[in-house]
Every structure is written in structure tokens, then in C-alpha cells.
Design brief:
elongated, single chain, two-stranded antiparallel ribbon, mainly alpha, 19 helices, 3-stranded mixed β-sheet
């Protein structure tokens, strides 16, 4: 009895549990859990397309949700987007008409990379093999035809319901920039190459797929065209646009928190900092030197928030190299009040098509919510330099002198006259003393 008690005590104190050698009965719960484990798809190193998480989505759900067209599986089958399915089929029909390809050719082509295309999505997809292949083919050909018709308007058929409706095609293009509304870039590229190798439109001089994508989106992003050999392999359209924003100047410092202490534009202006709009390869090529903050021109309109939010969501979910997050953080710090917006508009840095200065202010104050800075300290050197400049009293005194006493030619002339009168009075006094 004592031995049994001692053995039990040893098992408990050692953290071990006695093992029963009797046969356990079948447990339906255990079976169902094992079935769930078996249904898990293998982890993919190519995972690039995500559903936006709740914390980001709750700030502005509409910014991540397509309004007229679904592209890819994440919004596939939504009832409110079904009207566009007929347009997709018409564009698939046009794709076949402009080539020597049959439907069998196209389906066979897409089947060869079905598994690879699935692996790009961060969640297990519910579509069967045939459903997924049909979706990839229909949506992929639709995207390719939008790219082609935008570049070569002579191919647009009379009565085309997309390109003859500016409001509709504009919304389609914006929907194609949403993170949840993407196809893998290699699918678009492959279908485009399939088209160009089989087209009967030999008169067309078609550019690379990357130039076609840029031509479609350039009116919405205002960025310079890419060089084909300068763009690495991208995963989808959002990744493509994010790469175009990548800074080309060396703007990485050693303290990522320095950017959080950047003074707003009003404070900088009071300290004598001048704002200057400049042309740059990237909107992020910002410089500060000799009291001048040079910022590439930025157009703000109704699409700005949607584009920035989806670029930011992809960056936050996928990569540690958060240069876009750092850029938006810097703008958030510079723009604290409508007066800050007015200063940047006056300097030509911002062109506002959104509405009031308060609307622009709210956009940048809210867009960085739930965002984080990465390991690379983008713009931290600029934040440090701006803080150091503001802490130098002479800069503020000089700015106050210019602002209060030298801001008009008449005031400058008055100060010069007063100075000469003071000198003459002094000389007259000296002469009177010497004559005594």
C-alpha cells in the first residue's frame, strides 16, 4: 500500500501521467479533428495575396471591398458583383476572336499552373479544380483585355459597355488595385504572352506586360514609368505599384523612432523651414538641406485613400521593409491641422482635388492607424535634421524677422531708411561732441 502511494506521489510530482494500456474506444471528436488536419493545405513559400485583417478593415471597410468587379477567388460569387460577369465573358470571347486559340487551348494552359496559382493565396480556397480554372481563365482574360483595350483603343468594339462608360471603367480600374481582388501576376503575364504569340492582329506593336500595367494605372498613381529591366519579379498589381513607390535616394537612418518626433508643417514654417515641390523618380525621394524640405509633388483625390490603404495593407501583412508605412507616417506628422495642408498647397507640394484642407488632414491623420514602422529606419535622418533645425534659436529668430519685418518691399525700405537716419543721427551727435 505504501509502495503504491509512493509511486503515485512520484508520478504527480514529476509531472508524468499514468498511461493506460487498455484499448481506447473510437472517439468521434478525435476523428473529426484529424479530418480537419488532413484537409489543411501545405504552407506555400509563394503566399502573396491576403484578406485584409479586421483591425485595418474596421477603419474603412469600403477601401478594401470591390464595388463593381471581382478578380480572383476572395470575392468570387458575390451577388452584388454578378452584373460584371457578362462583361467578363464578352472579353473572353474577344480574347479568342483576336487570336487563333480555342477554348480547349486556354483551359489546358491554365490547368498546368492551377496548383501554383492557388499557392499565392494566404487562405485555403473553396473552389473545386474546375471552378478555380474557370475563374482564373475568365478573370485573367478579362484583365488582359482591359490592359489591351486601354493601350489600343482601336480594338474597342462599338457599344462596349466598359470603355464607353467612363465612370464604370474608372471603378473597374480602382477595383483592380485592391489587395483582396488580385490574380497572381504570372497568370496575367502568361495569358498576355499566350495572346501575343497567337494574335492575328499583326499590326499591333504591343509593349511589355509591365508597360501595359503602368499605362492602365498611371493616371491614378501619378508615378514615372518603370524600366523593364528595373522591376524585379512582382506578385500582383498591388506589389507592382508598391515597387514604383520605392525610394531611390538614401534616406535610411539609424533610429526608426526619430520620424515619430517630426514637427508639423506649421511648426517647421515658424522655424524658418521652406517647403519646395520637386520632380523625383519616386514620391518618397524627400530631402532636407540648408533649411529647405524638398517633397515630390503629390496629387490628392477621391482614389488616394483607397490606393494608399491597399498598398499599406499589403506591406503590413507581407514584408518587414516598410518604406510606404514610413512615408505615410512622415506625412501624418507633417500634416496635423488644415493649416499644415494650406502651407503645403501654397508651396506646390500638394494639389488638392479631394475637397477642403480639413478633408486632406483627416485622410492622413487616419490612414496610418494600426500601421507600424519596420526595421529599416526610413526618413529617420530627415526627422532628426528637422528636429535639430527647429531647436536652433537663430533659425526661428531669422524666420520671425523675415515674417514680421521684411515681408513686404515697403517694410524693407522703411527699415533701410530708419537705419540711415540712425547712422546720420549718430554721426551728427559725434560731430557735435567733437566741436565742443
Amino acid at each position: 500500500m505504501d509502495n503504491q502511494s509512493g509511486t503515485s506521489h512520484e508520478l504527480i510530482s514529476s509531472g508524468e501521467h499514468p498511461v493506460s494500456h487498455t484499448q481506447l474506444p473510437d472517439d468521434s471528436l478525435a476523428v473529426s479533428i484529424m479530418e480537419m488536419l488532413e484537409r489543411l493545405s501545405p504552407l506555400s513559400p509563394h503566399c502573396w495575396i491576403y484578406r485584409v485583417n479586421f483591425s485595418l478593415r474596421q477603419v474603412n471597410q469600403k477601401a478594401y471591398t470591390p464595388k463593381v468587379v471581382s478578380v480572383g477567388p476572395l470575392h468570387w460569387g458575390r451577388k452584388e458583383l454578378q452584373t460584371m460577369e457578362e462583361h467578363k465573358l464578352r472579353y473572353l470571347q474577344a480574347f479568342l476572336r483576336l487570336t487563333n486559340l480555342s477554348m480547349v487551348d486556354c483551359v489546358y494552359r491554365v490547368r498546368t499552373y492551377e496548383a501554383q496559382a492557388r499557392s499565392y493565396y494566404a487562405e485555403t480556397l473553396e473552389q473545386t479544380c474546375d471552378e478555380f480554372v474557370r475563374m482564373i481563365l475568365v478573370d485573367g482574360c478579362f484583365v488582359v483585355m482591359v490592359l489591351l483595350l486601354n493601350y489600343s483603343p482601336q480594338l474597342i468594339q462599338v457599344g462596349d459597355r466598359l470603355f464607353y462608360s467612363p465612370g464604370l471603367i474608372n471603378q473597374v480600374i480602382i477595383d483592380m488595385l485592391l489587395l483582396e481582388n488580385q490574380l497572381p501576376f504570372f497568370v496575367i503575364e502568361d495569358l498576355y504572352n499566350f495572346f501575343t504569340s497567337s494574335t492575328n492582329q499583326r499590326i499591333l506593336e504591343l509593349p511589355s506586360i509591365r508597360n501595359l500595367v503602368y499605362e492602365l494605372f498611371q493616371g491614378y498613381i501619378g508615378l514615372k514609368p518603370p524600366k523593364d529591366n528595373g522591376i524585379p519579379r512582382v506578385s500582383h498589381f498591388v506589389d507592382f505599384i508598391r515597387f514604383l513607390y520605392k525610394p531611390t535616394l538614401q534616406i535610411i537612418g539609424d533610429n526608426s523612432n526619430a520620424i515619430l518626433l517630426t514637427p508639423n508643417a506649421t511648426h517647421l514654417h515658424a522655424a524658418g523651414v521652406k517647403f519646395e515641390s520637386v520632380a523625383r523618380n519616386s514620391p518618397m525621394d524627400i530631402e532636407f538641406a540648408h533649411g529647405v524640405l524638398k517633397i515630390p509633388h503629390l496629387v490628392i483625390d477621391d482614389n488616394t485613400e483607397v490606393i494608399f490603404r491597399n498598398l499599406l495593407a499589403f506591406e503590413l501583412l507581407h514584408t518587414t521593409d516598410k518604406y510606404l508605412s514610413s512615408y505615410l507616417c512622415l506625412l501624418d506628422k507633417l500634416i496635423d491641422t488644415p493649416n499644415d495642408v494650406d502651407l503645403l498647397i501654397k508651396a506646390g507640394v500638394i494639389r488638392n482635388f479631394l475637397g477642403s484642407s480639413e478633408d486632406v488632414c483627416k485622410l492622413f491623420n487616419n490612414i496610418w492607424t494600426h500601421a507600424t514602422l519596420g526595421s529599416k529606419a526610413y526618413f529617420s535622418c530627415i526627422g532628426n535634421d528637422l528636429n535639430a533645425y527647429c531647436k536652433t534659436p537663430w533659425h526661428e529668430w531669422k524666420a520671425a524677422l523675415k515674417r514680421d519685418y521684411l515681408n513686404t518691399p515697403w517694410k524693407v525700405m522703411g527699415i533701410i531708411v530708419a537705419f540711415f537716419l540712425l547712422v546720420l543721427t549718430f554721426m551728427q551727435t559725434v560731430c557735435s561732441i567733437l566741436s565742443l
